Amino acid sequence: MKALIKFSLHDYLRSHKYFPPISTFIILILIYYSYRPNPIIDSYAVTAMILYIISAWLCISVLSLDPPVQRQLMVLHIGGENRYYLSKIISVLLISIILTVYAFIYPIIFGMFDESVTLTIGLVSLVNHVFLSILGISIASLFSKIITENAINSYGGLALTIIISFAALGVYDALPSYLKNIVWIIPPATSTQTPLINWNGENVLDLYLFPFIWIIIYSLIVLYLFIKLAKRIQK
Amino acid sequence: MEKLVELKNINKVYANKNVLNNISLTINKNQILAILGGNGTGKSTLLRIISGIERPSSGEINYPNKNIKIGYVPERFSKNIRFTPSEYLYYIGMMSGSAKDYLTKRIDDLLLLFELDKMKNHRIMELSKGNIQKVGLIQAILNRPNLLILDEPLSGLDSEAQEELVKILVELKQQGTTILLTYHESNIFESIVEDTFYLHDGSISETASSEKESIKLLIVRNVNKSIFKEWDGIFHVEEKGNQLYLYVTVKSSDVILSRVLQLEGSIEAVSTVTLDDMERML
């Protein structure tokens, strides 16, 4: 898997397809921190949401790199489809982690916050970034070229899903009580926002952790679905 | 003979169309085999199923040697690869678990053998069609596979490279590799192919030894075309006026002739044709 991950990252670099999502992320972070001081927890919550969208974009572009014949050959060489798809997902995650580090370090280095970042707040914020990027990657995998050949359906479907995920709270309030459970199928992108904003930042145990756990469970279910569907479609 | 791959009742359905019907065949170790048939008969699908790239809709495929290494050369190798041949082959070798030192030397040797050594620093997407096809071939033999599957390997190769390929295949066979290939419009492989499977409308009619004259053309009258659907050994039936042209295997031609006579049909002509002749006539 290591060789395919290296191959994918190297190929992505050569393709220059990384430029639009990564430059957009860098610019958005620069704009967000264009004035100071900023509240730490709230700012990191917002940059994690931006990373959620950018990770989804990265995922779609990385998964569109290999033409079908190339994909088949790599599956043969790496010894299985599960390994192939997991390698691709890990490749995207590695890029997202680099962006996480940038989003985390930039405001600290340039003194954009109103106070210093404590270890607890730092760790929770990092985890929130990584979890939301995993969520973005998992959702985008379902709209990638591997599953949806048509680029309009691919990007259109993903954009719509991301918009719905942002509107989840509004959708929940608008639904009659017997339909409220439908909200569980909407990607929980905004679920960590309210607990983070209400958190005092002193103790992790004071933070309502269920939304974080749910993001990971939801992402794993979607990734499992993606691999199942991809295997069925490609064979 | 030691079995390498065994297919039992393989069927493949695409969009409600049967591409492969009940294919059963055994590939033994250390042979050069060909699967022949016209366009759209399911050759490539069968090769992809044997290689493990594609799954059959039903049926069973067994590899008695669980550690079998399969090399696969697709009919059209990807053109848009942003790596040089050396880089690409190195990554492919690493994916298969080869050691770094072995790979570096093996890649250099193979690039030299296929005369790609001068182009090893050009990106694959910048190479000619023939050279891209050569990279496709090298990736398949890089890890010394037990079974090498080639889907129309001649496409894009000039005559010199075609002859070189034949030599390489013979060498690989001598080293213990089993080779399975498809081709048409060329006799270049006839001298090395030991057994041939004929595929027609998704069915294998018979295994015949590779000789030029292996198909009988029977021209018959006064028999209903539909009855031949159930008969064994028939490649193709064509209606021309009030005559039926039956393309059959040599082995089953006598049985078919006697059954036609039993049904009070008349036999107008019997001749022997080559596979190329048959494809031209169809």
UniProtKB/TrEMBL annotation, chain A:
Keywords: Membrane, Transmembrane, Transmembrane helix
Record-given protein name: Uncharacterized protein
Source species, domain of life: Bacteria
Transmembrane segments: 18-35, 41-65, 85-109, 121-143, 155-175, 208-227
Organism of provenance: Oceanobacillus chungangensis
Automatic annotation (TrEMBL), chain B:
Keyword list, A-Z: ATP-binding, Nucleotide-binding, Transport
Pfam family membership, one: ABC_tran
PROSITE patterns in the cross-refs: ABC_TRANSPORTER_1, ABC_TRANSPORTER_2
Boundaries of every ABC transporter domain copy: 5-226
Keyword Cell cycle tagged: no
MF terms in GO: ATP binding; ATP hydrolysis activity
Domain of life: Bacteria
InterPro entries: AAA+_ATPase, ABC_transporter-like_ATP-bd, ABC_transporter-like_CS, ABC_Transporter_VariousFunc, P-loop_NTPase
Name of the featured protein: ABC transporter ATP-binding protein
Species annotation: Oceanobacillus chungangensis
